[in-house]
Amino acid sequence: MAIVFIPSQLQKLTGTAQVEVEGNTVREVVTQMDIQFPGIQQRLFDDGQLLPTLQLSVDHVMTRVLSTSVKATTEVHFLPVIGGG
Amino acid sequence: MKTHVTTTINRATVEFLCQPRQSLLEVLRDELSLTGCKEGCNNGNCGACTVMLDGLPVDSCLVLAVEAEGAVIETVEGIAKQGHLHPLQQCFLEGAALQCGICTPGFLVTAKALLEKNPQPSEQEIRFGLAGNLCRCTGYDKIVRAVQATSKASPES
Amino acid sequence: MSTEVADNTSDTESPATYKVIGTRPVRHDGADKVTGKAVYTDDLHVPNMVFGAFVRSPHAHARIVSIDTSEAEKMPGVLATCTSADLPDPWDKVDNLGEGCVNYAHLSGNVLARKKALYKGHAVAAVAATDSYLAQEAARRIKVEYEPLPATMSVQDAMKEDAPLLHDELITHTLGEEPARPSNIASHIQFEKGNIDEGFAAADVVIEREFKTATVHQGYIEPHVSVALWNEDGRLKIWTATQGSFVVRQQMAELLKMPVSQITIVPCEIGGGFGGKISVYEQPVAAVLSRKCGRPVKIMMQRDEVFEATGPTPASFMRVKLGATKDGRLTAGNAWLAFDAGAFPGGVIGPGAMCVFSCYDLPHATVDGFDVVLNKPKTQAYRAPGSTHVAFATECVIDELAERLEIDPIEFRLNNAAKEGTRRVDGPVYPRVGLVECLQAIQNSDHWKSPLTGPNRGRGVACGFWFNCGLKSSVTANVNADGTVTLIEGSTDIGGTRTSIAMQLAETLGITAEDVIPQVVDTDSVGFTDVTGGSRTTFATGLAAHEAALDIQEQMVEQAAKIWECSQDEVTVVNGVYQGNGKSLPFKELAVEADKVGSPIVGRGAVDPQGSTNAFAVNLVDVEVDPETGKVTILRFTVCQDAGKAIHPSYVEGQMQGGSAQGIGWALNEEYFYGDDGHMRNASFLDYRMPTCYDLPMIDTIIVEVPNPDHPYGVRGVGEVPIVPPPPAIANAIYRATGVRFFELPMSPPTVWNAIKGQTTGD
């Protein structure tokens, strides 16, 4: 279970800014979320992987690792990737 | 058509052949393997190619190699002597006055010339003296301090 | 004394005592770099080497009708030519380079233009010849026929409905619904937090301002340069000036469609990067020319090529609106940000949008960010990419709000500063961060406590934030027979990182920094390592070195148990001294003994730390404005930054001072001047006016140390954030000196003079 913060541009699909979704990893959460809100995964993923232009914040740590485990209080955010200088 | 040029570089007599269009920087780097002087802009704006020419710091990219006939040249390779760093080089290292290091040879040549002319420069004199050399990494603070530290430690003081 | 270290270790954490960390040893590559011996790429003369030169578009936007290389190819000494037809057909694949992402079709099209030239200076063809003059002459004889097209040079123009399109099929990427029609808007990012209408309704004061910033360049002194050798066995070797050899290898493999194992990248010493030496430019072209002529090919850009055809950082157009209550609490913020991506999508709008309110605890906010293509070179990262733009906007509005509310500008910032638990507008919540400590350190500084007097003078304050990243790093550490350790690493050393990484290995092992011999090696000689960038190198490669040291320590314990004929459990290690069975030896002496008895001791470290280490910086600046000329002189400058833990304080100060100087240049002078024809008018170091020694004062530094809980020594990374606060700090100072607020960068003498004149004449 995790709390997914829905990007504002996708909130038309969910109707809310946050949703609680079942799952033990980020990937499971996203799969489950797509069952609840059909089509949402294809906006965030390409060919089973997170869009290269996106990264995740899982428990406030930026990552792109989809096997990152989640618990009931975990927040998942979808954010743009950051380049550095 | 190449021109024969005889010079003194870092205290040794050096002869080379060059094309009339070649700059001193090109000849030092490409013909004589003195790659310490760097090309940053090739038009006299950045100072990375500074060498001493007859006692004056010059942008070697703006000097034609044929003009060096009979000249006395010192490059960054000639600053350390007998296996010992010059105090200025030592102060640059101890004061962390370099980051990427590409501008460092030019700064060392210019700063050494400045201190030889004015052993106890003020901060403003140092800044004015080094204004023809660009550094993009350090913000110049530690470079100025390294020159000050060299000046303080010199026997003239 | 220019430097203070404000120790902000909290009461619960006892300040660690270190032997090596926090000291200031001479850097390991120092002697090479002060004697001219250090080998940068252009210093290489590979046997049988020839030289390449580019043909570049004279038009900002043009269809390429034809390219005729025949005349050039007939010249004696000309060995090969190359156009985009020599590159494999690119695939529309977007890849993550660790530091941001790249679309290889765009990258290939940027390396050599395909159907259209999209900016003045865009590479169209190249040639290799036996000397560099001949190569340039041959390049002039390559005939390119163009059909010029209208050029678009500002984000405002490029976003118009009827703007000429750069890419006919570019559909705005958003996470939500995408528009049906193509445009120059490559992407639209949006963040929302709370309810902005409620937020502004609760405000007593609301200020909204519009800002513009100019295109600026990283300005590294070493031009882009590479030597490529494509061998007859199909292996490709490239010596190059890059921030990341493995990332160059990855890009080369994709662009040339060959396996990474066929490519070796040798990173030479690098003369500055600041984000601009991550993308490839000349490397694939040198490689193709080498393949065609069978000889090593060197290509070095001239300075005007660097300005016109590598990646500067974007110009921007921004609107920021903030509201606050009478007692000085921010209630809401709204930002609308359009950044120029250059000729291909993928600018730095993402981090810009994430950073715009990142210094503050803002209950309600919305952010819209647009990545806009136009006829300028493809933009790239430049030190905290995107954050400097948005800090200029936000920090100027914050300053105006504080003034309107009659609250001290530091107090106002402290009232609202982001801290542990603050939820950012883009969503995540901060762990322990050091903005409050930095603001307090500025309040306690001698500079803040010394009043500024005199006419035309003013003092300004501003904050800045940058994420910093982790990413992958590998090292190998070999224990030598004399007890020293050779540290093999893949992080190119741009600013002393050989030493800051070696110091962490030394600290963990209990040896001196001088006992470590760091070596930066090629991509065949060490494990994958991401770029030297993102303020990650001392943090992440340092973490790998720490891990390698722990690995060595474990092997040393094994050997000690053998030597002392006891069990491993009986061996203890305290501060690098090994004890067991009544015997005791320090690391170096034990290593000498171990070398005689056991297998070689080799440590490995391979890490991929997730997350950002969150750096904050605060500037305090005093300026004097010459009312006759509009010239702004920096009288005094203090930068305070949370470094987590400063491994080598001199090089931390150096990053703070260097970043500040770049920020000062951005604030006061640096800009690309474009003519109506889309040509850059100032593509030289004389006319693109970077700060010289004579333009700057000493830059005082205050290092705050709020340790990063996710690093054994508390390192946060320091390189990028110091560029962020100078433009708004200087704008705020100029306001106090002149009474005029500036909303446009740079605040160059003509701009300032005109504004002061406008004020006094009532224009």
List keywords for this structure.
heterotrimer, A: 85 residues, Ubiquitin-like (UB roll), two-stranded antiparallel sheet, 3 helices, B: 157 residues, alpha+beta, DNA polymerase, domain 1, 2 domains, 5-stranded mixed beta sheet
Description:
The complex is a heterotrimer of chains A (85), B (157) and C (763). Chain A is of the alpha+beta class and 85 residues long. Helices cover 24% and strands 31% of the residues of chain A. Chain A contains three helices and seven strands. Chain A has helices spanning 11-14, 26-36, 40-44, and strands at residues 2-5, 18-21, 45-46, 49-50, 54-58, 61-63, 75-80. Chain A has a five-stranded mixed beta sheet, with helices on one face. In chain A, strand 3 and strand 4 (49-50) form a beta hairpin. Chain A is globular. Chain B folds into two domains: 3-78, Beta-grasp domain (Ubiquitin-like (UB roll), Roll), CATH 3.10.20; 87-153, DNA polymerase, domain 1. The longest helix of chain B has 14 residues, at 104-117. In chain B, 32% of the residues lie in helices and 16% in strands. In chain B, strand 3 (50-53) and strand 4 form a beta hairpin. The model of chain B has no long low-confidence stretch (mean pLDDT 97). With 763 residues, chain C is of the alpha+beta class. Among the domains of chain C are: 1-9 and 431-465 and 614-763, 2-Layer Sandwich (Aldehyde Oxidoreductase, domain 4); 470-607, Aldehyde Oxidoreductase, domain 4, CATH 3.30.365. In chain C, 28% of the residues lie in helices and 25% in strands. Chain C has 20 helices and 29 strands. In chain C, the strands form seven sheets. A seven-stranded mixed beta sheet of chain C has the order 4-8-2-15-12-13-14. In chain C, a hairpin with a 4-residue loop joins strand 5 (94-96) and strand 6. In chain C, helix 10 runs parallel beside helix 11 (387-404). The two termini of chain C are 45 Å apart. Mean pLDDT of chain C is 95; it is low at 7-14. The chains are: A alpha+beta (85), B alpha+beta (157), C alpha+beta (763). The interface between B and C is large, with 58 and 60 residues.
